[in-house]
Amino acid sequence: MERYDMIVIGAGPAGLSAAIEAAKCGIKPVVFDENARPGGQLFKQIHKFFGSKEHKAKMRGFNIGKQLLEEAESVGVKVVLGATVTGLYDGKEVTVRIGDEIKHVQGDSVLVATGASENMVNFDGWTLPGVIGAGAAQTMMNLHHVKPGERILMLGTGNVGLVVSYQLMQAGCDVVALVDAAPRVGGYGVHASKVARCGVPFYLSHTIMRAEGDDHVTGVVIGEVGPDWKIKPGSEKHFDVDTICLAVGLSPMAQLLSMAGCDMDDTKGGYVPVIDEDGMTSIDGVFSAGDVTGIEEASSAMIEGRIAGLAVANYLGYIDEDEKAKRIGEQEKALDALRQGMFAPQNRGKKITETEEGIAISENLLEKGFVSDDEIERYPGVTHKKGIHPVIECTQNIPCNPCQDACKFGCISIGDNITSLPVVTEGSQCTGCGMCVASCSGQAIFLVEEDVEPGYGEVTMPYEFLPLPEKGDKGIALGRDGKEVCEAEVTKIRSAKAFDHTNLLTIKVPNEKLMQARFFKSRD
User: Fold this and answer.
1) What sign does the dihedral 470-475-476-478 (CA atoms) show?
2) One-character DSSP codes across 414-451
3) 415: which residues sit within 8 A by CB, 6+ positions away?
4) Where in the numbering of this chain does the 4Fe-4S ferredoxin-type domain appear (predicted)?
5) Quick one: fold of 120-246?
6) Does 2-117+250-338 carry CATH code 3.90.950.10?
7) Residues spanned by CATH 3.50.50.60 within the chain?
8) Half-sphere exposure of 29 (CA within 13 A, CB side)
């Protein structure tokens, strides 16, 4: 039987990060993963991450995945792919199927980082071809370059539903609506806003009644949900679609830990192992990290993995308690920063009515997916001044600060608290370079300039759709609600390596429409 210092089950963000950190301490870990490619969900994530530099902020998920793989290779982490772990037994013995062969291996330590699986919901027709999970749609698009469908309805307005809806549109799909039984948008407001300004309607307090079709989806009927969670009679709405995407949460894949006899906790977020502060389960030498311990963002999973990797190194005697405490302390500080703000774990389920600055939350954003024109003026990043200047439509306390780092002229400030709303610094002079626009993970920053010519000004916005418009193209400007604001003409399109595939699109509109125009749609 082969024996290893450390067996890692799962080559996603948490598992790879743990193996890397352990290998840096001198351990020789092996990582088993059932997939044909390591990196887990990272290679499906084409959007830019939130957080700060230490959290890989403003980097796209697949690039973070590439970095992890390069780092793992550089420190000698052994990754075995196409390897399905089928059992975890006494003595930290693991059975793994590789091809047609079942192998028994044993570790001095085992780290389980098996992630999570998508939840499903039942409704009439839910087994028809064309009803798929949002994660499956993301896999089809971003890994296999296959459109999941032409006309799609998304169920779920958490971050997964919002992000995947936007990516579906980037892939050329028509997203006809976002639907959620909850009365409020569940994900980040900036994600909802970039979907809403593309013209996609939100139906909150609605759910799917049935999918239509004989051998595949041809339509869907939704209905409004009352306070008793029952469908209100007469509230049915029909959409012609060929695909229904479900983004209704994730469940930790903790079966191996349960099989091994670890103490488990049945929480609202799923069936998870009981772990100590270092990620060790109730079984000596068996650790876990990432979504298998509770659903969070990939950024958190990577940090949890590094903490667990250091804890394993200490457990095996490769680093002492002082070294462990020092290095884990640095990681915990980074993890704590991600767990602050309105979407912090301790705030789940709470109705937040004000920002940390005491500003009333946009009810329109929560109920319709966009901040209304009269609400937007209350936020500190929304400014009016002569000359070109940033307008920052960041309205929720999210742990993120790339815009502050992006501006080399100090025009934008967040301060030491990473969840503070950004402000435009008094007396600063914007050069119009656009780095803040391109770096914003939520695509919530615009450059505005009045009187570029008599009666007309320009708005520069982030643009991540193909084909790119060309200078001189005429079309319409859409508002935050996705409705037509005015005629618009493209005056400039900028692409640069530093923008990381976020193009800067500048359109000319009447001065009085500058604070409303937030998206460009070609007449074609």
Assistant:
1) negative
2) --S-TTSPPEEPTT-------HHHHH-TT--EEEEEEE
3) none
4) 420-450
5) FAD/NAD(P)-binding domain (3.50.50)
6) no
7) 2-117+250-338, 120-246
8) 36
Q: How far is CA 25 from CA 13, 14, 79, 316, in A?
A: 19, 17, 18, 10
Pairing of strands 250-252, 423-424: unpaired
Tokens of 98: 């590789």
Per residue of the chain (524 residues), what is the pLDDT tens digit?
899 999 999 999 999 999 999 999 999 999 999 998 899 899 999 999 999 887 888 999 999 999 999 999 999 999 999 999 999 999 999 999 999 999 999 999 999 999 999 999 999 999 999 999 999 999 999 999 999 999 999 999 999 999 999 999 999 999 999 999 999 999 999 999 999 999 999 999 999 999 999 999 999 999 999 999 999 999 999 999 999 999 999 999 999 999 999 999 998 888 999 999 999 999 999 999 999 999 999 999 999 999 999 999 999 999 999 999 999 999 999 999 999 999 998 888 888 999 999 999 999 999 999 999 999 999 999 999 999 999 999 999 999 999 999 999 999 999 989 999 999 998 889 999 999 999 999 999 999 999 999 999 999 999 999 999 999 999 999 999 999 999 999 999 999 999 999 999 999 999 999 999 999 999 87
Tokens 């793992």, residue?
Answer: 72
Query: Which residue bears the tokens 């071809």?
Result: 129
